[in-house]
Write a structure and sequence with these properties.
By secondary structure, this protein is mainly alpha-helical. It is about 85% helix and about 0% strand.
């Protein structure tokens, strides 16, 4: 059985994967067409990638401390972020 912490870690992993895909896609586009908008998308995807990595690290350290009350909030924030990244990835892919 999965706990809410396992689900949150899975969502963070999906966020990192989506941000990595977006970063790679925009890096390829920037190499082909170096424009400011493409560079902006590249920086945006890189920021989300770093945020996801930090989020994974800090959430794992919080799990070691058994801080209660943050899991529902953290789940909601990460679900919203995952939906936003999914929409952005879908638009980018099209």
């Amino acid at each position: 059985m999965f706990t809410i912490d396992d689900i949150i870690l899975l969502i963070i992993g999906v966020d990192i994967l989506l941000a990595l895909i977006l970063f790679a896609t925009h890096l390829r586009n920037y190499r082909a067409i170096p424009s400011r908008i493409t560079l902006g998308f590249l920086v945006f995807a890189g920021a989300f990638l770093l945020e996801g990595i930090f989020n994974l690290y800090f959430y794992n350290s919080i799990l070691q401390q058994a801080i209660t009350g943050l899991t529902t909030f953290h789940l909601a924030v990460n679900l919203i972020e995952m939906v936003a990244l999914l929409v952005l990835a879908w638009i980018t892919w099209k």
